[in-house]
Amino acid sequence: MSLRAIVRSLLLAPLAIALPVPGHNDEKPAAFFLAGDSTTAVQSTGGGGWGDGFLRTLKSPAFGVNKGHNGATTVSFVKGGDWAQVLNLVKNATDNYNVYVTIQFGHNDQKPANNVSIPQFKTNLASLASDVQSLGATPLLFTSLSRRNFNGNELIQDLGDVVNATREVAAASHIKLIDLNAASRKYVQAIGSADADKYNLVEGDRTHLNTHGSDVFGRIVADLLLGSDRSLGRWIGRNVTLSHLIAEGVYA
Ligand SMILES: *[C@@H]1O[C@H](CO)[C@@H](O)[C@H](O)[C@H]1NC(C)=O
Ligand SMILES: *[C@@H]1O[C@H](CO)[C@@H](O)[C@H](O)[C@H]1NC(C)=O
Ligand SMILES: *[C@@H]1O[C@H](CO)[C@@H](O)[C@H](O)[C@H]1NC(C)=O
Ligand SMILES: *[C@@H]1O[C@H](CO)[C@@H](O)[C@H](O)[C@H]1NC(C)=O
Known about the structure:
The chain is of the alpha/beta class. Helix content is about 45%, strand content about 10%. The protein has a five-stranded parallel β-sheet, with helices on both faces.
């Protein structure tokens, strides 16, 4: 890179970060609507993710709604009407809130039986994000929460295809990426298999989270968001003790 290009990229960098979102202003509290599969969803039989744990970190009047749907793909979430419900929540909230929509899929899209190819997955993610932007809200593309299966001491990466695809969409469409897969992998690898199993929804379910797991991985999400947007500090509560344990890779 030439000196001139470096100087130009430095000058442009703060501008890119400060780019205004049409529906946002400094006075409004944040609202978070969570779109995704069972690894976002409310704890229930056969499902349960980080969503409710994250929502518990919010400071009123900030609020959120967990619309995670067990078994959802980027196709079924739209076809089944969940996405329309998310968009209605967004439309109703943008006057009074800075609205964020988290978009996290992949666990089911990657299963061959669901017939979602990677190119289709990418097109779908871009389309969801664009719907959110067109309503004056901010889409946040999340890479998939890691599963907690180990091969010996090594955490297995079995989401690489959909994680890479999500990263590519975020980069190509200039959508904010929240790399939950990287952050959750780092923590799960650090604590190891036996401690990671304590977050299982039920014994042997290394995909879904129990309530405590939701609080811990919800904290990871909260910290990623706080790190990505300083204005969210007013609306997302902190837990320095828990954040510190996670950052140090110590089981919490
Ligand atoms: C719409 O927004 C109003 C005001 O923020 C709120 O009281 C109401 O519960 C919302 N309705 C729905 C369906 O989200
Ligand atoms: C995937 O395609 C097969 C073969 O066309 C079909 O039987 C199956 O129902 C499809 N599954 C979904 C989830 O659309
Ligand atoms: C994902 O991308 C990484 C880094 O570019 C690469 O090493 C890995 O093989 C990719 N994984 C898949 C499943 O495509
Ligand atoms: C903060 O995290 C610690 C460690 O997990 C937990 O014991 C405590 O209850 C949390 N505090 C709040 C206010 O959530």
